[in-house]
Amino acid sequence: MGLRINKGELSRDSASKIIEQNLPDINFRLFDCLSFQSGTLVIIRVTLQNKEIARRKLNLNPEIETVTTSGKIRLVRERMGIPRPPRK
Predict the structure, then answer these.
(1) Are 35 and 60 in contact (CB under 8 A)?
(2) What's the CA gap between 51 and 46, in Å, rounded?
(3) For domain 2-80, is the CATH number 3.30.70?
């Protein structure tokens, strides 16, 4: 699931905490986090059964916008224009 957090530049930890506050009962994994002055682009993974619940909960917050969803992280990255990070 690709998100935009409209709260200026955020660190990975700050973005994760905001998502945790909005999804307290849903497990997620944060994949990518890119910050810009205008906001932060984030990609998270949630289970298929929690996808719609997570989307509804995140969209209740006026600072968070769900941009795209897909079963593949690669497709979410492509749609949001986020390059794949280099492997370690």
Answers:
(1) no
(2) 6
(3) yes
Q: What is the pLDDT of residues 23-50, one digit of tens each?
A: 999 999 999 999 888 899 999 999 999 9
Q: What is the DSSP letter of 70?
A: -
List the chain domain ranges. 2-80
| pTM, two decimal places | 0.88
Sign (positive or negative) of CA dihedral 7, 9, 10, 12: positive
SS3 of the chain: helix, strand, coil, percent, to 5: 35, 25, 35
In 3D space, the residue among 17, 21, 15, 57 whose CA is nearest the CA of residue 39 turns out to be 15
31 near 70, Cβ under 8 Å?
no
